[in-house]
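Input for the complex:
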Amino acid sequence: MAYTEEELKKELETKEYEYGFYTDIESDTMPVGLNEDVVIAISKKKGEPEWMTLWRLEAFKYWKEMEEPEWANVKYEKPDFQAISYYSAPNKKPKYDSLDEVDPELLDTFKKLGISIDEQKKLAGVAVDIVMDSVSVATTFKKTLAEKGIIFCSISEAIKEHPELVKKYIGSVVPKKDNFYAALNSAVFSDGSFCYIPKGVRCPMELSTYFRINQAGTGQFERTLVIADEGSYVSYLEGCTAPSRDENQLHAAVVELIALDGAEIKYSTVQNWFPGDKEGRGGVYNFVTKRGLCEKNAKISWTQVETGSAVTWKYPSCVLKGDNSIGEFYSIAVTNNHQQADTGTKMIHLGKNTRSTIISKGISAGKSQNSYRGLVQVNSRAENARNFSQCDSLLMGNECGAHTFPYIEAKNKTAQIEHEATTSKIGEDQIFYCNQRGIDTEKAIALIVNGFSKEVLNKLPMEFAVEAQKLLEISLEGSVG
Amino acid sequence: MDLKDKLISSFMAFENNVDIEHPVHDVRTEAMKNFELKGFPSKKEEAWKYTSLKSLQKTDFSIFPKEEGNTLEYKDVKRYFLHEIDTYKIVFIDGIYSSYLSETTHDGVDICLMSSALTKPMYKPVIDVYFNKVASKDESLTSLNTAFSREGAYIYIPKNKMPKKPIEIIHFATGNEASLLLQPRNLIIAEENAELQVIERHQSLTSNEVLTNSVTEIFAADSAIVDYYKIQNDAENASLIDNTYIDQKNKSVVKVHTFSFGGKLTRNNLNFYQNGQYIDSTMKGVTILGDKQHVDHHTLVHHIEPNCESHQDYKGIYGENSTGVFNGKIIVDKIAQKTNAFQQNNNILISDKATINTKPQLEIFADDVKCSHGCTIGQLDEDALFYLRSRGIPKKEARALLMYAFANNVLESVRIPELKARINKLIAKKLGVNLGFDL
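Predicted:
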């Protein structure tokens, strides 16, 4: 296959967003602006109990006093929070029992995205809770899950039906006043997913949610809460695409994971939101707070493939509270044209014998800026904590930038921390090495790029990996391989 | 009155003692304005996240030391000099030049005083070109130093020259004042193809409090070679904020070694600006701390032009309640292709209460570069320790031997053998052992 770095670069630059289309579904949209009345109205519209309304109002109060953070290595036009409509739900609201009832246009949208909500999905063993403009419209595999005692539903449903769980855990990992966007999300979150795995249950299938931003001018404020009870296991997938739009859209999600003693959560994300066009117009602002809490012997593993969004600001983190707990973070971030990504992780070691691994791969092309920002903190009581971090950047073209900002703080003498970072383009000696062994230059480049991201792509669950490649499209892997 | 206000009001008194008609004074006034605006950096600023100057600001430092009575006998302070070999010496006692202890020269090269360079007309052309040209005009502590700049070392090495011997710059604090603020200002210029070696040391002789806010500007012209050694093994109540700015031109080689073994609070701001091609910049450091000592290494290498290299290697051993900070920043500009930047920071924590914060940082805008940084925090290898003990080496010595080995590759590049031996002794003393041989 004749494929050179030049061509690859050209392809990256000229690649238009393939999933840019707009589904015309009537939406129930709230007037723009944000004040206490809007918060109350959202809560009322969703039929929430009073404690939830108060919880939202408290978050709103904190938010009002907060300032938008500016420390990230990104430049963008600040969103006007009074010009956003904070709620939008597809009009034909009733839940569907079968696919036939679903708006055909909606189904068409999913088809274009390559998401098979129907039988194929069942064969693949994936249950999908599709969030389209903030309200769950279809949930499959619910029954199979219910038999195991697994709760997998939208968060608004959970608030109504499992208030004791929601009340106990919501905001326990990401407090309301954690940061500007978390506070905003806490006040106005429209919907999201809720998942509870009972004690000792191994979730038989990969749970997945597709987020879509569809309505013009609506910010999407998703809230995800995953609770894995003692000794349970769940693999959760989240994938995103969004239609082309000229104005900037704001996405400020909060994801909270709770892994109780001996539980394991694997959380995978493929993010391919509209990155803006070649001149850097439009595109999604992605300001996400993701954090997991590990109790004793628990494990949380974050895997992410970030290819979309104009501005990304995202740090999936692990609080390793329990002894012997494990945190992992695997990430590929690809930026192109005028995209900016400031992403990384935080590993907070509190318990004894805690371990964490960070593998971050950044690929920048065009005029994009790609930053890794991470914190590894070992507290004084965290005996024998172990961390390994590696962040590698690959630069394509001479107008992009790659940056690393790793913070390492150790307060315990038994801590062992290693951090490595490299930045390079595809090395001539690497190509020479391949040439020397009879592999031509085109193949060598493919091989090297392949190897560069493989480490992370390998961590994606099987079912998702296939879809990830399709969603990625831009992926260096798929096109070069 | 807090320290900032005191400094601002002292500036007027300072103006009475210097020539305010001299163009340098405009630079001072401008710098003072910046300091007034910014004040002391707080922990809220990213660059000062891990180092607090709060307690220092509460101390009532005397800003102008007494001019008389500060004499020292050479035999009392001999051990602070590199007395095994002959050196040029620029010695200051409580900020005042001591001609008795110094050995300066104007024989082909200028190794003398900043105060004469700033006042005598013959130096004016040099001062106009170099003074405050590479030092930051934005950073508040550098501005503070610039505002009060009057005394320090002035070294000018003309084209193709090399001084006959290394140069020592030593600042003594005698404790005549209860608490003393010193602000030395050094200017070092190596013209094309010149070469020099400098050893800098700050030494307090009492337990009285001393704060030194030092600024050194180094200019290395084409093919110049500069070796700079900083020995920081000060008394328990001495704090040092060292700001060093280095401007390098084509093919120049500048190496800065920092040995931090003492002092209460030490902050090293080491900035390299590579204004040319085929430049080599090296910064290495060994830090061994105990007590409640705090050392903060802040390095910056700005790769502005193509085909340059930079090497950083910092080793730290932290015991008792000490705190170590390392923040190494590498910036590679868009046109600085073929840059090769290497950075390493290894740390060993030997006490439960010691802390290390490290932040190696890369900001890269060029694609054809090789940049890497590595950072580790760990302990001594138990297996290696066992190996040594099984061969009859006591635990304490075995540990020291391993720590020696850990720090050794930083010492390898020290080019003055006597200095290397001296530092070996300092390390042995710091580790509390006598190995009976030199490494």
